[in-house]
Amino acid sequence: MSVDVEPVDPGAESPASPLEPPSQSDTEPSSQTRQLRFTGDGREYFRIWIVNVALTLLTLGIYSAWAKVRARRYLYGSVWLGDDAFDYTANPVAILRGRILLLLVLVPVSLAQRVSILYYYAALLVLMPLVPWVVVRARSFHLRNSRYRSLAFDFTGKYWDAAVWYPLSWAASIVTLGLVRPLTVLGRDRFLVTESSFGNRTFGFTGKPGPYYRMYIITAVVVGVLYVGGVFFLLLVLAARTMASGADPGTAAPDMGAFMIGSLAVAGIVVLFVAAYLRTRLLCYRWNSSRLGHNDFSLTLSFPTMLWLYASNAVAIVATFGLFIPFARIRLLRYIVEEFRVLQREDPDAFEVGDRQSVGATGAEAAGEFGLEIGI
Amino acid sequence: MNAVACRYYDGKSSSRKAGALTITDAGDLIVDGDDLEERLVYRDVRIPNRVADTPRFIHFPDGAVCEVQDNDALDELRARLRRDDPEPRRDRFWRLVHRLDSTWRGAAAALAVVVAVLYSFTRWGAPAVASLVVATTPQEAEALLGQSGLNLLRQLEVLETSALEPNRRNDLLAAFEAMRREAGVEHADLQFYSLGAPNAFALPGGTVVITDELVEFAEHDEEIIAVLAHELGHVEGRHVLRSMAQRSTLLALWTAVTGDVSLAALSVLGPDQLIAQSYSRDFERAADEFAADYLLRAGISPTRLGDILERLEHASGTGSFPTWLSSHPAAADRARNAMERVGGRDEPGP
User: Fold this and answer.
1) Are residues B144 and B78 in the same domain?
2) pLDDT tens digits for B174-231?
3) CATH code where residue B67 lies
């Protein structure tokens, strides 16, 4: 399960009171801890979401790009640092273009799969060189359209760096049976963070291999235990069922169905753990190791709380046939956003526009831009 | 004229100035304030549409940005900006969307649309897509699917080697082969296993499995023929593949709507069972009809199928299940359907 976690963008800081004190640039910048605030409301977001779904269905999917921007604008506008909310400025047409492009690539691949599995693998191999390009475009599209106090974030990652940390590092992980995986994730995080910037400042990264190895070893051990224990338990239950069974003729053997459901349950528990533990720890560590100028970040999420949020969200989504999805997103976001701290050591007014963001460039480029989105 | 409070950013730094937005009679937007060095005039400014009550950022052509938190005041200002011109269609559309998603009545209308579209898609769209998938899936691929399912069942020792006498098996094989030819089904074969319970099922690719226990349970060979005819009906309609295609089509639709495959999978987990069972009932009915047609042509009473099913149900005690919970129509219903079919057709002979 992956509930979108990304809209929390690193921010600058801000003076305390609303409109009145326009600038405090004369005061001595002192160190100060600021907490992000979240004003999103599940009911409000549900209405936006259900109208988005309805319009998406009625327009055969075309509206989905506008829906995305509307939902994002709501979420960004609900995240506050000091008394400034974030701003999402993506052009829906660019997103639509990106989605059509993705469809044009993926439909032939899935058709190839229908013809022969060999063609399918060949198609995947041909697509590999596209992966770094998509990664770079997606992240830069995402960050360049995220603004705080009128300044945009940016991402300047290059194709070949992305090629190292995506397809090539996957190959390295496979060859070494996962032993170098924590190192490649560290490299990927450093790449993603240090190539990001806000205004004219670049993010810094101080992550070390030790914590990555610790997180991955704990995950590997727990997942192993869950799998072995789960499958053992499943076989036990199945054996008992088979002995007691007396079924009538059907289209498929009932035990196969039970086995499938059981394996899905085991896989579900494993996914739940990975989301609540590994993904959460990676997210926290990435933020805690990031800095912007002299400002530091801190994010501490508790495993039991995340586990509870993910598990209860999953149950509620199943029970409501999906209608709980918007509430689930808001619950999760509220917890993550409100645990986020910025250790502010610089004057919030002191950030300046980055050199890549000269006014004309954004508009001119937007015409030919593909708004690609992937979960990084 | 009412001014709207705003925060002005010059587009070059993160420092902001308090300002006020007003509109001239000519429709120009003015940003003014004590902290601003000069009065700024903007022409042809697009004020962004409103999303709930989140702050709106007006991006000016020179890179400057104005943030407004009072949404009602800004909407009023925008209305005045367009006093003489008709409101652009785009703005009208977004005003409608805001009306829909800021009220529960609008949300309820949207929910009704979603339910109606999803229902129609489940009822008519997914089966149509599935027919297309079934028509284009090569027989070999389907057979591979069935084979791997069968292998799994054997490895798990759910299915064990049949202990039926070879003569008995050959008789049934011959009857099945004759049936297959008569009905014009291209790919179908019969296999015998022991399961510990009377059962028969069709796998993708055309393999029909019948258990020793079912062969022994039958009181008459015609009952076995009837069950095999029913399973051959599943093979002929490629029902297992069709059912898989229908359900994955729904998952694909919901994934496209929610934008997330795991959330979509969670959402359809509940309805999937109901939908699958409703599809399954359709398939059972089709297979029953196929069987009844064949039995009539072969001079066997179609009630044979109902007879054995009713006894099976009695033996396994599932008769108390409400129909909508079971993937199979109640045996009594099926027996009645078969009778209606007999009555509703011209009897080919005595």
Assistant:
1) no
2) 999 999 999 888 889 999 998 878 888 888 888 898 988 888 888 888 888 889 999 9
3) 2.30.29
Closest Cα in chain A, distance from residue B55 (Å): 6
CATH number, domain with residue B292: 3.30.2010.10
For A373, which residue in chain B has the nearest alpha carbon? B259
User: Domain-by-domain residue ranges, chain A?
Assistant: 89-199+353-376, 208-243+253-278
Sort out which chain B residues have CB atoms less than 8 A from A78's CB and list them: 54
Are B184 and B256 in a shared domain? yes
3-state secondary structure chain A: CCCCCCCCCCCCCCCCCCCCCCCCCCCCCCCEEEEEEECCCHHHHHHHHHHHHHHHHHCCCCCHHHHHHHHHHHHHCCEEECCEEEEECCCHHHHHHHHHHHHHHHHHHHHHHHHCHHHHHHHHHHHCCHHHHHHHHHHHHHHHCEEECCEEEEECCCHHHHHHHHHHHHHHHHHCCCCCHHHHHHHHHHHHHHCEEECCEEEEECCCHHHHHHHHHHHHHHHHHHHHHHHHHHHHHHHHHHHHCCCCCCCCCHHHHHHHHHHHHHHHHHHHHHHHHHHHHHHHHHHHCEEECCEEEEECCCHHHHHHHHHHHHHHHHHCCCCCHHHHHHHHHHHHHHCEEEEECCCHHHCECCHHHCHHHHHHHHCCCCCCCCCC
Closest residue in A to B276 (Cα–Cα): A251
For B257, the closest of A53, A148, A250 (CB atoms) is A53
ipTM of the complex: 0.80
B169 found inside a domain: yes
The residue among A72, A96, A150, A323 with the most chain B CBs within 10 A of its CB, best to mutate, is A150
Q: With respect to residue B291, please indicate whether it lies within any of the assigned structural domains.
A: yes
Out of B85, B108, B129, a domain closes at B85
Contact B266/A253, CB-based, under 8 Å?
Answer: no
Mean pLDDT, chain B, whole residue set = 82
Mind telling me how many Å the CA of B269 is from chain A's nearest CA? 6
Taking an 8 Å cut-off on Cβ atoms, the answer to whether B283 and A85 are in contact is: no
Say which of B65, B153, B200 has its CB closest to residue A150: B65
Minimum-distance CB partner of A151 among B14, B117, B262: B14
Q: How many domains does chain B have?
A: 2
Answer whether residue B304 is part of any domain.
yes
Cβ distance of A352 and B12 shorter than 8 Å: yes
A134 confidence band (pLDDT: 50, 70, 90): confident
- Single pTM value for the model: 0.79
- Supply the range of the domain harboring residue B40: 4-85
End-of-domain residue from the set B85, B120, B154? B85
Q: Is residue B91 part of a domain?
A: no
Is B5 in CB contact (< 8 Å) with chain A? yes
> A89 to chain B: which residues are within 8 Å by CB?
57, 59
Tell if the CB–CB gap between A317 and B271 is shorter than 8 Å: no
Q: Is residue A12 scored above 70 in pLDDT?
A: no
Residues A51-61, mean pLDDT to the nearest whole number: 93
**Residue in chain B lying closest to A314 (CA):** B266
B159 touches chain A (CB under 8 A): yes
Residue B63's pLDDT band (cuts 50, 70, 90): confident
Residue of A27, A47, A52, A324 best to disrupt the B interface, most CBs of B under 10 A: A47
